[in-house]
Amino acid sequence: MDNLFIIGIGGTGMRCIDAFTHLCAIGMFDNQEIDILTLDTDTNNGNKSKTEQLIERYIKIKGGEKNSSPTNNTFFSAKINHYRYAPEYSDDEKTYRLISQQDKGEEMIQRQNKALSDLFFDENVQNFRLDHGYRAQTHIGSHLMYHAMLNAMNNFNNDDANEQENELAEFLNKVYRAGDEARVFIFGSVFGGTGASSIPVIPRALKDAIKLKDKTLEISQDTLFGSTLLTSYFTFNPPKNIQLKKDFVVADSNKFEMNSQAALMFYEDNTTVQQTYSRMYHIGWPISFINYDEGNKEKETTTGGAEQKNPAHIVELMCACAAYEFFNIKREKLEGHEILYKSIEFKDNTYNFHFQDFFGKDYKKFMDKLGAFYATNFLIHKDDGNIKILTDKLAKDYNISDYKDLTVEVAREINNYFKYFGFDLDKENGMVIQGWLHQIQKSALNPNFLFQPEAYINDYRTLRKYNFGQLFSNEKFHFSNPTWYRGDSPYSKFIQNFNEKTKPNEDQKVEHLPERLLAHIYNTISSLHGII
Amino acid sequence: MKTFTLSILFRIIGGERVPITSGNWQQLQLEVFVFGAIIAVVFLLIAWLISNSIAFEEGKDAKDARKRRVAFIILGVIAIILLFFINSFVVTENLKGAQEKRFVQVNVIGIIIDALVYFVGGFITSKIFKNTKWGTIFPTRK
Fold first, then answer.
1. What is the structure's pLDDT at A91?
2. Does A402 touch chain B if contact means CB atoms closer than 8 Å?
3. How near does any CA of chain A get to the CA of B82, in Å?
């Protein structure tokens, strides 16, 4: 089995990692150990912190990074190891001018350095603050990201590395140790800043950085690299003159399509890219771009920072599915260089997504796992959004005391994971807080996205009462059809089937209590759906 | 092989006056005991049906297990009262003098059999089927 590595770069890369983590959570990566590197220039970026929080929550549910191991045919089956790296741009080294040290040395050298920099980069580009990323300036971004990674490795060699530089070094070491069994998949956009800057240089940077540790070390020639070529799919308010004067350079979403086009031309032609990447997945969204500043025309363009927390989009799920394909395809099929794409049925001004569109022949597994995971989200909400209520009740009234020792802390992590995945119910204000899956459905512009439209309804009372035993449009997979005179609610059906027969078996390899509980829940719902 | 029937008891319950002699007194006694057990089993079945019709409830304050327990106890009490009434007002009507007095003891034993079969049977089956709705009547609290 190959060693799997994911690198998510920039804001879009982070959201793709969100989608990927959710695929791991629903159980699409059984028996796998996956090392994930979150890489961003904007250390305080809202998307980055949200993603890192999500991964940390995943790891806690699994029982911690050191204690956990991969499991089989259950939720949270992949073991995830998380590494973080962000070039240090928040201190004095805020601009390219400062980092390149143009103003140091003799006057003659300073003049020459400046002349060289001016040859490649505009004055504004050299002077904008880098702590909010590369702001769609990929020419300078590639240069700086490569420099930052090698610099981090130098610091590591000199015992002067900070925590994140150590994590990067550890990640690199793992890629190196994986030898010819490494598969590295990179998430990022081709139209923005950090991701677009980094995708072309990351494989090279990894190879050169490991050599800095020891000249004899080399990342295996057989290491497979894959990436997404994700073109523009969102917009935001264009920058105003006042902001441009203040910040020098601000990303303009009106140029994203042009950026995408230029990037695609580059990727198609560039021989280095062709030699490095085995597979590139061209993913895009041609209709109705989501506007992150909708209803707020006067808002300044968000350049980054904690404020940048964008909703999920279906293209990010497609990127995560691309990684699934890349990780599961036979090595022989990954020889050479290929750029892949597929089309989705477009009818009545909307896309008709089917489970097959995401996972091809493995669609039943996806259907089963996603359905069970989303049903668990509903199940938890039936017990006031707290899985601890369920486990307590099982022990107190239903003779199942296996899970009574679930701690409040782990229960909270499970509750929050599911709420972030699907939806949360704000009891006080009677509101539905849309989670990742609801945001995906909204972006897909199709109310019938994979499940029944009622499963996504944005009304507190209706969603609270929703019969989650009827998630799928195909009645064959319904498990609760109560009438006024007979039949049980889906919750009741679940408890009825949560018994010895559905207890986790040895093949599932679940050890920790939360893992056993989640495997038991998965087995129960999966048997009720009867998809596989 | 001799088959056992509740012929005397059923004829009495059916309104027929059956003369009880020292020859069939033993038979009547046995029939009353068996009838007590049968009533218990019938009521156990009713309790099981009712228990299955009560859905598992959502939320922290779910009362479904308690409802099943209450239904089980009420049905058990009804079974006892029913047997007591049948014995006291239907069977005793058919008896006279000393037989009537002796039947009080038979009635009590019949009721004890009824109660034992119902509650002990309920308890044992609840433990056997502990992961079903029936199992929630006597939960094992570890």
1. 67
2. no
3. 28
Tell me the chain B residues in contact with residue A481 when contact means C-beta distances shorter than 8 Å: none
Residues A156-187 pLDDT 10s: 999 999 999 999 999 999 999 999 999 999 99
Q: Which of A39-43, A324-328, A331-335 has the lowest mean pLDDT?
A: A39-43
Domains and their CATH numbers in chain A: 3-94+129-342 (3.40.50.1440), 362-529 (no CATH)
Q: Is residue B96 part of a domain?
A: yes
Shortest CB distance from A398 goes to which of B55, B58, B136? B136
Split into its structural domains, chain B has a count of 1
Residues 6+ apart with CB under 8 A from B119: B76
The DSSP annotation for A51-118 comes to HHHHHHHHHHHHT-TTT----SSSTT-SEEEEEEE----SSS--SHHHHTTTTSS-HHHHHHHHHHHH
The ipTM assigned to this model is 0.86
Range of the domain at B96: 32-51+66-136
pLDDT at A475 (0 to 100): 95
Asked if the structure places residue B104 within a domain, the reply is yes
Q: Does the pLDDT value for residue A303 go beyond 70? A: no
Kindly list the distances between the CA atom of residue A321 and the CA atoms of A338, B10, B29, in Å, as whole numbers in the listed order.
Answer: 17, 73, 76
Question: Does residue B26 form part of some domain?
Answer: no
Q: Give, to the nearest 10 degrees, the angle between helix A490-497 and helix A363-382.
A: 110
